[in-house]
Amino acid sequence: MTIGGSIARRADTLSVRCEVRGSLSKVSIPADTEPPRRKDRLWEETCLELFLGTADSGEYREFNLSPSGHWNVYRFTRYREGMREETAIVSLPFDVRRDPEALTFTAEFGIEKIVPAGKDLAATVAAVIRTTDGGKSHWATAHPASRPDFHRRDGFALTLPGEG
């Protein structure tokens, strides 16, 4: 299995694309049996995660996107502390495409309500993959420690410059 993708920033808009490729018959993919909504604990199943923070603050956001269409965004005051839903984001539209060899997530959304204009962003894109036999693997842009921990700021390996 391979995971790849891209993330780009244009002013206050982020564009994210992530693709999981391989034999998806062994991947547990949550079904879209109900309308997409904000939902907790999506990381317990297969999902895409995006983490964003600014260089001058310990505060960061965690975005969760499920193949079922459910989503959530959390705000943390610092490393794994102060977790609460990010109420500034009331919807998170994204698209999921599935075929036998690929699961592709694409999203484009505004960040003006959560990031001061012109601030550089530190980011990481990650995925939790649950297999049909109950196994789980963690994929990320960088794993700076011996165990996966998407919340570590030294793992926010991508820089998305602000304008100005």
Can you give a write-up of this model?
This protein is mostly beta strands and 164 residues long. It has no helices and 11 strands. It has strands at residues 2-10, 13-21, 47-54, 60-65, 71-76, 84-85, 94-99, 102-110, 121-130, 136-140, 158-160.
CA-CA gap between termini: 40 Å
Number-wise, the strands total 11
Spell the H/E element sequence: EEEEEEEEEEE
The low-pLDDT segments are none
Helix share, percent: under 10%
The helix count comes to: 0
Overall radius of gyration: 15 Å
Look at the helices and sheets and give the structural class: mainly beta
Residue-averaged pLDDT: 93
**Biggest beta-sheet profile:** 7 strands, antiparallel
Indicate the overall shape: globular
Percentage beta strand: 35-45%
Q: Characteristics of this structure?
A:
single chain; 164 residues; mainly beta; seven-stranded antiparallel β-sheet; four-stranded antiparallel β-sheet
Short description:
This protein is mostly beta strands.
Summarize the topology.
Elements: E1 2-10, E2 13-21, E3 47-54, E4 60-65, E5 71-76, E6 84-85, E7 94-99, E8 102-110, E9 121-130, E10 136-140, E11 158-160
Antiparallel strand pairs: 1-2, 2-8, 3-4, 3-9, 4-5, 5-6, 7-8, 9-10, 9-11
